[in-house]
Amino acid sequence: MKVSSRLTNITGGGSGGWDLFNRARAMKQSGIPVTELTIGEHDTPTDPSILNAMHAAALAGHTGYTTIGGLAPLRERVAQRVEARTGVATGPENVLIVPGGQAGLFAALMATCEPGDTALYIDPYYATYPGTIRAAGAVPKPVKARSRHGFQPAGEDIDAAADSAAALLINSPNNPTGAVYSGRTLADIAEVCARREMWLISDEVYDTQVWSGTHVSSRALPGMAERTLVVGSMSKSHAMTGSRIGWIIGPQEAIAQIANLTTHTTYGVSGFTQMAACHALDRGEPFEAQIAAPFRRRRDMVMAQIAAQNVVRAIPAEGAMYVMLDLRATGLSGDAFANLLLDTHHVAVMPGESFGAAAAGHVRVALTVDDARLETAIAQLLDLAAHETVPNPG
C-alpha cells in the first residue's frame, strides 16, 4: 500500500538537514566521544522543583483528559506573562495551550492557509519550517536574508515574494542566526503584511534569550494584533523541552477555531504537565534569567575567541542559544567543513546549508555544553579553519 504524498513530500525529497546530526549520534553510540553542538537542548535538566510539581499533580489525579484548549490556571498565567512582557492586552480567550511550539506552528499554519496557498518564511530558517508548511497543505516559499546584513530580512524582499501569499512565518530571536529583529525590520514586516493582507506567524520561543537589542513581539506592532499568531513555549525559557508545553496567542475567534483543530488532532495536553508549567511560570522572571544566563556567558566567550582571529566571522549573536559562523574564507561549504570537523576533531556543528541556501558557507554552533568543552571545541574549529583557508594570491 502507498503512503500519502502529503507525508512523503514533507521534507521536499531531502533529509531535512539532519544527516550530520545522525552521523554524530551514530559515532557516539559506537563509543567515539563527540562534542555535540548541534541541537538546542539545555545541558542541564528540568529544575527539580518543576519535576516535583509534575509528580505531585499526577498523584493528585491530573492524569485524565483535560480541557482541550488548556487548563484555565495555565491559560491565565500565560496571558498575564504575555501582557506583562508585550504591553498588549491579553486574556485567557487569546491563549491556546498546545503540546510544544512545533505543534503550535503546525496549527497556526493550518489556521492561516488554505490548501495550495503560499506561505512565506525567512531563509535561513529553523529546519522544520518548510516541512511544516507542506504538512499543513500550503506551499513554502523562502525569502532570503543576507549574511552581510546580520540576517535581518528586508521588507522589499518580502514584498517582492508576497504575491498571493497567505502568511509569513518569522522567528526572532532567530534560530539559527542569533539575529534579534530590529524595530525597522519589524515595522517593514508589519507594513507588508497589512498592505498584502497576510497573516503573520511569529515564532517567539527564544523571547527570554536576548543578549543585545530589544525583543519586540510582532503582536505589539500597530495594527498587528488582529492579524498575528504568536507561538511560544516553555522549552527554551524553562528548560522543559521534553514536557511539550507551548501556546498560541492570537485573536479570540482564531484561537477558538484552532482549538477545534486540536480536538481532532492532539486532544489536549496532559494535566500534570500543565500544572507543572503553572508552577514554573510562578517562579517568575528571575528563574527565566537563571535558565538563560549560561547561554549569554558562553555567547560572550565564543565571540571573544572569534575576535582573536581573522578567518572565521561571527554573525552578531544578539539572542538565542546559538552562534552562526561564516566560514566562506576557507573555500569550503558549511556542509564540507562540518563533516571535516566531525571527522578530525569529533566536534559536531550544524552545516548552514541545513537551514537554507542563504546560510551556505556557514555553520551553526549550539552553546549547549559546559564552558570548558565549548571553549576547546571552538579552538579546534578555528584551528581547522585556519589550516583549511586558501591563501589569497593577491
UniProtKB/TrEMBL annotation:
<dbReference type="GO" id="GO:0006520">
    <property type="term" value="P:amino acid metabolic process"/>
</dbReference>
<keyword id="KW-0808">Transferase</keyword>
<keyword id="KW-0032">Aminotransferase</keyword>
<dbReference type="InterPro" id="IPR015424">
    <property type="entry name" value="PyrdxlP-dep_Trfase"/>
</dbReference>
<dbReference type="InterPro" id="IPR050596">
    <property type="entry name" value="AspAT/PAT-like"/>
</dbReference>
<comment type="similarity">
    <text>Belongs to the class-I pyridoxal-phosphate-dependent aminotransferase family.</text>
</comment>
<dbReference type="InterPro" id="IPR004839">
    <property type="entry name" value="Aminotransferase_I/II_large"/>
</dbReference>
<dbReference type="InterPro" id="IPR004838">
    <property type="entry name" value="NHTrfase_class1_PyrdxlP-BS"/>
</dbReference>
<dbReference type="Pfam" id="PF00155">
    <property type="entry name" value="Aminotran_1_2"/>
</dbReference>
<feature type="domain" description="Aminotransferase class I/classII large">
    <location>
        <begin position="34"/>
        <end position="380"/>
    </location>
</feature>
<dbReference type="GO" id="GO:0030170">
    <property type="term" value="F:pyridoxal phosphate binding"/>
</dbReference>
<protein>
    <recommendedName>
        <fullName>Aminotransferase</fullName>
        <ecNumber>2.6.1.-</ecNumber>
    </recommendedName>
</protein>
<keyword id="KW-0663">Pyridoxal phosphate</keyword>
<dbReference type="GO" id="GO:0004069">
    <property type="term" value="F:L-aspartate:2-oxoglutarate aminotransferase activity"/>
</dbReference>
<dbReference type="InterPro" id="IPR015421">
    <property type="entry name" value="PyrdxlP-dep_Trfase_major"/>
</dbReference>
